[in-house]
Amino acid sequence: MSETLNFRIDRWNGVIIDMSKQSLENQIFVDKLKESIAQWTTEGKRGLWVTAKTEHSALIPSLIELGFDFHHAQPGYLCLTKWLPVDIPSHIPGYANHYVGVAGFVVNSNNELLVIREKYQGLKNNTIAVWKLPGGLADAGEEIGATAVREVREETGVESEYICIIAFRHMHNFRHGCSDLYYACLMKPLSSEINACPQEIEECKWMDIEEYSQLNDISEVNKFFVQRYKEIISTNTGITLSKVLSFDKQATHSVYGIGKV
Fold it and tell me: What does this protein do (predicted)?
């Protein structure tokens, strides 16, 4: 081949092709890819990965014809894969299959819990939204405690400090076939004035924690969080964060375990 594709070999002897790094015209790219697939098969290469950005979408039908299949998509790009070995089942890993949700369990010195009612929660069934904890999905690369601080601030206007994880819920078939990890974080309030988000929150207030736990319409999971909070207060023990060196000692990992709070 007079021209070759721009690609790299990964640690599992697979091939990664980034379309944004190609300088070939579309049809030439397809022809070169077809030739390369034959060569890579002979060389014993395994999984092929192609990342196609929006501007490369015209090439997707050609990639499908070459045996690629959709792996995952995000705004701005689509990832396709192809498994080359014919005598070995595909070892291409699936895409991320969990959401990470975080709630702030903010308790003040008066034993009051910061709770919210969402603006749109009850619209579908024309009911009043239940009282729940402020929280939301973690952003990519965001620590659990940082998510709790951000979500509490965004939804209630209250500044808070992360202390520990109270408990977490693992639920399946949550959204788009994915599972959900939902962390309840014990938070220390650094302010008390409420300034609820007008776009998302119908009502927000400090509620006596015993009163909250006795409400009929709160979830059993939140009742469990209240009980675990009481145990943490009585034992000074919770799920705490430690920073531990990575295997190559070039970075640190966030590791959670039982510890004193």
Answer: May contribute to the regulation of cell proliferation.
